[in-house]
Amino acid sequence: VCVGIDPVLERLPAELAPRARTSAAAAGAVERFGRDVLDAVAAHVPAVKLNIAFFEAFHAAGIAAFQRLISYAHERGLLVIADIKRGDIGSTAQFYARGHLERSAFEDIPESSVPDAVTLSGYLGAGSVKPFIEAAKRTGRGMFVLVRPSDPGADEVHDFGGERPFYRHMAKLVDAWGSDAAFVGEYGLSCVGAVVAPKDAESTAELRAAMPRTIFLVPGYGAQGAGAEACRPCFLTGGRGAIVNASRSVIYAYEEPRYSEKFGQDWRKCVSAAAAEFCAEITRVVQAP
Amino acid sequence: VCVGIDPVLERLPAELAPRARTSAAAAGAVERFGRDVLDAVAAHVPAVKLNIAFFEAFHAAGIAAFQRLISYAHERGLLVIADIKRGDIGSTAQFYARGHLERSAFEDIPESSVPDAVTLSGYLGAGSVKPFIEAAKRTGRGMFVLVRPSDPGADEVHDFGGERPFYRHMAKLVDAWGSDAAFVGEYGLSCVGAVVAPKDAESTAELRAAMPRTIFLVPGYGAQGAGAEACRPCFLTGGRGAIVNASRSVIYAYEEPRYSEKFGQDWRKCVSAAAAEFCAEITRVVQAP
Prior knowledge:
The structure is a homodimer. Chain A is built from twelve helices and eight strands. Chain A is globular and about 50 Å long. By secondary structure, chain A is an alpha/beta fold. Chains A and B meet through helix 1, helix 2, helix 3, helix 4 and helix 5 of A and helix 1, helix 2, helix 3, helix 4 and helix 5 of B.
């Protein structure tokens, strides 16, 4: 399991509201929130996902906060997925890989601020992913390429092709991109993973079979509507091969009466309890026969 | 026409080499280069495109440099396209739009640092583009959604579907997303444009017909191999409806003997001459009967 950190200024606990209308003050507020969330969930989950969109909204100050949060998550022993969904032709992708997955080339950028994996948009073909695969090979890191997104609005693109839909084509490509033995580790899993939303059990199982070496990053749990049971076909036998992410249902748990009535003003305890429950629920599904 | 600014540290003129191994020094070097390029091309072209990947490689310092360059381009009277290729589900896209196209919400971020248009990846459907359309409506700005990229490596994705290929499907969607009368201006063109690489004349003309209200941002000219003649079918009759971009062939003109032999060490004159030639060549094609 993995907790997604998507901090929205307007939803932060009142005590964290920024004191000035500057990007620096706003970035400072989401950074404080992010650190507290990391503290609250670190005991319950092995990994976190930081969505860079929620930091880019605060420009350079947001990017600096994003990187410091990655370092802090590493200090807390967490694996970090940077949810960046970058995708461009090879000559450009090379620079995205330098910025987000390669070893730090700069004295003022600590290696701890580089994530363990990124999400990618592979719609410009192998060239858009290759620079990340090269970086992953050198650094032991990895990536998750979009195959089937969680938003039903994406179906107008991903169901294109009818009987043999576009997302199945992307699955085939992602499987091929990651199949080289040099990219596959001791558990038979590749550094090239896939973002796969759990929809009906049949189509999810088909995707699982089409990408046998691919770790699934599974969005859509919680606030986006998927339950733990829907995630089951994303796992390989033995409970390997998938990482289920929950973002809003965990980090904004203090907005839910069932938590706030129990913990009152202590929003950190609400987040912590939601992370523990989320983990327990997925574990139960994975361990069920 | 439009000059693309994709600054690569290793290719900068020697006088601009950074003095320290920090992201701040590197970002400073590409910013100085970018300012000089803007000065060199401002007399010859109406627009520039800044590719954010080449700045993200320098982390927060790179983003700050990127934004200052946008402001500087505006000071020089240029229109600015921020080549960001962002694409995520609606709830995330909203924050990408805040970061890149909405009016500045912060006192320390000048409105002049917001570009006039962005490039987008629309593969997560209407939801991924809608927040940008809303921002464009409010601010008079615009966007270019990927329809057919220039890299032949992208064909494995875009030719999917055979007779009725995927890129044609994207063209249909982009046309629909921008068709509302509220998005169409006095010349009959929509704020929702498309990135369309010029390949064979027939398929390019088909795309032009499929998106009659759509401004084409045309990559692939120059270093990527397309000539001016190939760009002709991207234009509407009368020479409207397309923006042809050249990046490397202009900004690194000083690496080409035909310029450096003429202008010697004055790399800025090489860039200026290449921009003037590029503009003349496209103008000739557009004005030809």
